[in-house]
Amino acid sequence: MVFSPNEIATRGEEIYKRQYQSRFEATEHGKFVAIDVTTEKAYLGTTPPKAYEAARSANAPGPFHLMKVGEIGAFRVSYSEDGNAKRDWLFR
User: Fold this and answer.
1) 25-79 per-position pLDDT tens digit
2) pTM (2 decimals)?
3) Can you say whether residue 71 is alpha, beta or left, with left for phi > 0 and alpha for psi between -120 and 50 degrees?
């Protein structure tokens, strides 16, 4: 099965809300979760690579939607117009 990036994100968000959100936000806040959009299983880790490694260790087929539990996204990206050409994109 082939998914577009938008389909992966949409399915991942829906699976998270339906199956994992209430439990994970009560007990796993701040961790990362990789959701296999084909099997609907979730794999937790303290970092994005650790969540992905948990999924791969379980032989999950993927593709995966990555989220940070309790946050609106896994990463925050912002733009700065401070005149510093070397640091105009900030990743947090």
Assistant:
1) 999 999 999 999 999 999 999 999 999 999 999 999 989 999 999 876 665 555 5
2) 0.76
3) beta
Q: Are 75 and 92 in contact (CB under 8 A)?
A: yes
Tokens representing 29 are 């806040």
Give, rounded to a whole angstrom, the gap between the first and last alpha carbons of the chain: 33
Q: What are phi and psi of 77, to 5 degrees?
A: -125, 135
* Per-residue pLDDT tens over the stretch 64-90: 999 999 876 665 555 555 555 554 444
CA-to-CA separations, 75 to 8, 57, 68, in angstroms, rounded: 17, 24, 8
DSSP 48: H
